[in-house]
Amino acid sequence: MASFQKRSNGSVTATIRRTGYPTYCETWPTRQQAEAWARGVEDQIKSGGVVDYPELKKAVLVELMGRYVKEVLEHRKGWRSDCARMEMFMREPWAQLDCTADIAAALRARKKVRLAEVSGQSFNRELGLLVGFFDYAVKEWGLRLPNNPAKQILRAKESPAARRLVWSNELLYRMLDHFGFSLDRGPATPAECVGWVILLLRSTGLRLGTLCSIRMADIHLDRKLIRFGADQVKNSEAWDCPLSDNSIALIRRLMGHRQGETRLLPEFAYSSGRLFREGRDSLAKTEPEVGNLHLHGLRKTWTTENAGKITDPKLLLKITGRKNMKVLIDNYYDPSATELAEHLN
């Protein structure tokens, strides 16, 4: 229901509050005008429409998205991938809509098309980014939308965790050969960098973004660790990553190729995820068994291999840099039935 407040100059302010909607407030010269406006707003809310504020006509999505990129996304840790997704949205036809349009309907139509192109996991990441965008526009910019249109879209069904398939050594070497990797060459080109990234992820169990953030000053081979600051890790807490002898040897080899540089990997290492997917998909046309490989699967491979060596759960959490054993077991530990059978005897 609307409430009305008479101002000192004789005008009347109408305020409408309803659960799940922003507060609507306008000041009118007379109470009669204020009541008429309030009835119109309440009718639009009941019908599920968007209240016709003039600023919503001016609020074109593509312009708001550009502002969101500069104001929010460029300051996030995962800014590269988030900015790339938002820039993709900005090129799509629905981004030309203003905020009085039925944005949810446009997003539903997009969902049908998009799921023919990408997996459910990828679509849900895109949808999550849009949810955050509209929430920010309402809460920080005061955009008077009746609801978050991205929240009106159901998440896609996600397939089993094939993207975290444990890599066999055979598949590992097959991918390294495909990218022309050699220990005798440094990552001078993006393709050569992918090979180094694959081996480093396999030997350390790090996330791709964390690996790419390593500075030479972070590496302490004499103490067998890499020291990560809070800005380099996903959970925003500084962490010392312990290194095995194999990973130390690999890092020392790479540092030999990168003398005089301030970072372990070149800046273009951040594009390794995209280059890997392109190379994998190309190879999968003749060798389909590589089609389910993902770089993040190397994190699961490393965890599965090392979890069998470490019997103390607390020690395993410390080594992997995680806090929750359930997440560790459910998402990153996947021994084969043969390996499990050995514990039965």
Your description of this structure?
By secondary structure, the protein is mainly alpha-helical. The protein has three domains: 2-49; 58-152; 163-344, Orthogonal Bundle (hpI Integrase, Chain A). It has 15 helices and six strands. It has helices at residues 31-46, 54-58, 61-71, 79-91, 103-114, 120-141, 169-178, 190-204, 208-212, 245-257, 272-284, 297-307, 313-320, 325-332, 337-341; strands spanning 2-6, 12-16, 24-28, 219-220, 225-228, 239-242. The strands form two sheets. Strands 1-2-3 form a three-stranded antiparallel β-sheet, covered by helices on one side. A three-stranded antiparallel β-sheet has the order 4-5-6, with no helix packed on it. Strand 4 (219-220) and strand 5 form a beta hairpin. Helix 8 (190-204) crosses helix 11. It starts with a strand and ends with a helix. The mean pLDDT is 84.
SSE diagram, text form:
Layout: E1 2-6, E2 12-16, E3 24-28, H1 31-46, H2 54-58, H3 61-71, H4 79-91, H5 103-114, H6 120-141, H7 169-178, H8 190-204, H9 208-212, E4 219-220, E5 225-228, E6 239-242, H10 245-257, H11 272-284, H12 297-307, H13 313-320, H14 325-332, H15 337-341
Antiparallel strand pairs: 1-2, 2-3, 4-5, 5-6
Can you give me a brief rundown of this structure?
Helices cover 48% and strands 7% of the residues.
> Percent of residues in helical segments?
40-55%
CATH second-level architecture of the largest domain = Orthogonal Bundle
**How many β-strand runs?**
6
Helices and strands, in order, run as: EEEHHHHHHHHHEEEHHHHHH
Structural class based on helices, strands and sheet pairing: mainly alpha
How would you state the average pLDDT, rounded?
Answer: 84
Which outline best applies? elongated
Specify Rg, calculated over alpha carbons.
26 Å
The strand order across the widest sheet is 1-2-3
Question: Under CATH, the topology of the largest domain is which?
Answer: hpI Integrase, Chain A
CATH 4th-level superfamily of the largest domain: Intergrase catalytic core
How many structural units, i.e. domains?
A: 3
